[in-house]
Design goal:
Blueprint lengths: L3 H14 L3 E4 L10 H10 L3 E6 L12 H7 L3 E5 L5 H8 L3 H14 L8 E5 L10 H16 L5 E4 L6 H9 L3 H10 L16 E2 L5 E2 L2 H5 L19 H4 L27
Parallel strand pairs: 1-2, 2-3, 3-4, 4-5
Antiparallel strand pairs: 6-7
Length: 268
């Protein structure tokens, strides 16, 4: 969890440097006692704010006002819904998650999301495969969710599964590690490189440390200074980050495979 000191320093940096977008993530970022501080500080600084919402938080006690709060501050919601069927969601996220997600999406729709306010969903494939064409999957999602649940949204983002953390453990356990990395490497698309999120996005950890992307953060690959010491957000200005070398690893193949993968879906 972000501490009060770190939250204040991040908020001060946002106020001073006025980034175009402040994208709040972290599993369930709304659980942080400083979530609303970040939202309101960023909106006051003129930033477009995104909440990476796992949806089920809206169904938890004490968070029922989230749809109205987010709507009041015109926060874009990007919500995780790995599939439009209960069985597939249960495989990835556990039993009961799908029903809670549907209930939360209905509340977001009622608050104006999917119409006047941006509501986007995120799809991850089940298992060691690349996601299908984003436009086709979006069409399927829209048809099924509207028909079966009366839910509307704007866009679907397809994100390739990264060979890190729990997914990496699962690949190794099932003897699929080598074949998945081979799939990613053989699917390399040079046309994705220009649009990779690490080229224009700064990832900030809960201590204020900075990374080239969320995946580097998960792998503990922070940005460092010339002495190799860890850098924190308040150590840098946007200008100082220009032309820096981006830290890469084998996991980067996931972002460059096929149509590419970024925090806003396909790259090409």
């Amino acid at each position: 969890m972000v501490t009060a000191e770190v939250a204040v320093r991040i908020g001060d940096w946002i106020t001073q440097h006025r980034p175009e977008i402040v994208d709040i993530t972290g599993g369930a970022p709304e659980l942080s006692e400083f979530f609303r501080h970040f939202v309101e500080t960023a909106r006051t600084a003129g930033a477009h704010v995104i909440d990476r919402c796992n949806l089920t938080i809206i169904e938890e006690p004490g968070y029922g006002d989230l749809p109205q709060y987010l709507a009041e501050h015109e926060v874009e919601v990007i919500a995780s819904l790995p599939c439009y069927t209960a069985d597939n969601v249960a495989k990835q996220r556990g039993q009961g998650v799908f029903d809670k997600s549907i209930a939360a999406l209905r509340k977001l729709n009622a608050a104006g999301y999917g119409t006047r306010l941006p509501l986007n969903l995120v799809y991850n494939p089940v298992g060691p495969t690349l996601p299908g064409p984003q436009a086709e999957l979006e069409s399927d999602y829209k048809e099924v969710l509207a028909r079966d649940f009366g839910i509307i949204f704007h866009r679907l983002f397809t994100i390739t599964n990264q060979p890190i953390a729990r997914f990496a453990e699962d690949l190794r356990r099932h003897g699929q590690w080598d074949s998945y990395l081979e799939l990613l490497a053989n699917s390399f698309n040079p046309g994705t490189v220009e649009g990779l999120m690490c080229r224009d996005t700064l990832s900030v950890g809960y201590r204020g440390e900075i990374y080239d992307c969320d995946f580097n953060q998960m792998l503990q690959m922070p940005l460092g200074n010339s002495e190799g010491s860890e850098l924190f957000l308040w150590d840098v200005t946007p200008a100082q980050l220009e032309e820096r070398e981006i830290q890469t690893g084998f996991h980067c193949l996931a972002c460059t495979a096929g149509a590419g993968s970024s925090c806003t879906g396909s790259v090409t």
